[in-house]
């Protein structure tokens, strides 16, 4: 295997690191993708400010996406789904069926996913441990009532 020309390899490495880290890859997975072990990655990241910053910044991106998904699950959300729907076409003449055809089409539908009490309990416990029991344990949280389902036009 040929080595990349000087400067090009590092640019490709940084792109790979940015992509993997922003998707939430572990440091071990990133090191394997770069063709090195976990122990070899640590000193390289300490000596290479651009690599260290790429790891730090994109881990934050992945953590932000994870937190956003958890908040959506805790508060409820609208989702668009594609579902197969069978359409039947029938023609009648004089009260008798003369033609029938079925076809399947993908139809987009909006569906409301209600809030998850377990995720809400976990987030409250993790974000406000003094008020709601620590470490995401459902110790101090009790859900008293369910939030009513919003009308379709009112929620994004």
Descriptive notes:
The protein has six helices and two strands; from the N terminus they run ααααββαα. A two-stranded antiparallel ribbon has the order 1-2. β1 (77-93) and β2 (96-113) form a beta hairpin. Helices cover 47% and strands 22% of the residues. The two termini are 50 Å apart. It is an alpha+beta fold and 156 residues long.
In short:
With 156 residues, the chain is of the alpha+beta class. The protein is 47% helix and 22% strand. The protein has helices spanning 8-22, 27-33, 38-47, 49-75, 117-127, 129-132; strands spanning 77-93, 96-113.
Main sheet: strands, sense, barrel = 2 strands, antiparallel
3D shape: flat
Given as residue ranges, the uncertain stretches (5+ residues, pLDDT < 50) are 1-8
Helix content: 40-55%
> Could you tell me the strand content as a percent range?
15-25%
Can you list the strand order of the major beta sheet? 1-2
Structural class: alpha+beta
The number of strands is 2
Question: Whole-number radius of gyration?
Answer: 26 Å
Helix-strand sequence: HHHHEEHH
What structural keywords apply?
2 strands, alpha+beta, 156 residues, two-stranded antiparallel ribbon, 6 helices
List the helices and strands and how they pair.
Elements: H1 8-22, H2 27-33, H3 38-47, H4 49-75, E1 77-93, E2 96-113, H5 117-127, H6 129-132
Antiparallel strand pairs: 1-2
Helix pairs in contact: 1-2, 1-4, 3-4, 4-5
